[in-house]
Amino acid sequence: MTTASALIADAVRALSGLPQEGLGEERDSRWRGRRIVRVGAAWHIGVLLLTETHALATAEVLRAADPGRRGYTADSARERAERRALALRGGFDEGDVVHVGWSVIDLDGVDAGGASGPLAMIDAVPSVRWSTAGGWMPLEAYLRERVELLRG
Of 12, 9, 1, nearest to 147 (Cα)? Predict the structure, then answer.
């Protein structure tokens, strides 16, 4: 039986040497204020973030940027600009892609027949839910397609 752990390990080997994107965590201190700091890097594979040691579920994706002086027609645009500035303040370079709010996927739990994040064992096949509204698809095909896109 193919396991999610084995499929993820194969994907990580195939991604070796390709550029990664930043993993960030929000921090708040009295001296430095609010900011998003770098805590690692990962390959972004659709709904997954893969590191050398973990599979993570994606959440918020932003690009570090100076918000400048702009007029905003929506509060959501203002909040997004503020989040991009927090990443810049936390040490990311202008334009860096930053993933925030990600969570670790329990691959052992998935391999045992359970579910974690966007992964689950469906009829003994490691599967991924590629969108909140989408259905399940085999993890092997999903990773193959996404890795080929990154390598191409």
Answer: 12
The span from the CA of 117 to the CA of 18, in Å, is 25
Give the whole-angstrom CA distance, residue 125 versus residue 27: 38
Q: What is the pLDDT of residue 146?
A: 95
Burial class from Cβ neighbours inside 10 Å (0-12, 13-18, 19+) for residue 79 reads exposed
CA 13, CA 87: separation in Å to the nearest integer? 29
**What mean pLDDT do residues 54-77 have?**
84
pLDDT of residue 72: 60
Q: Report how far residue 92's alpha carbon sits from residue 126's, in angstroms, rounded to the nearest whole number.
A: 35
| Cβ proximity of 64 and 87 under 8 Å | yes
The Cα–Cα gap between 130 and 107 comes to: 17
Q: Residue 148: pLDDT above 80?
A: yes
Read off the tokens for 128: 């991924």
* Cut 0.85: pTM above it: yes
* Average pLDDT value over all residues in the chain: 93
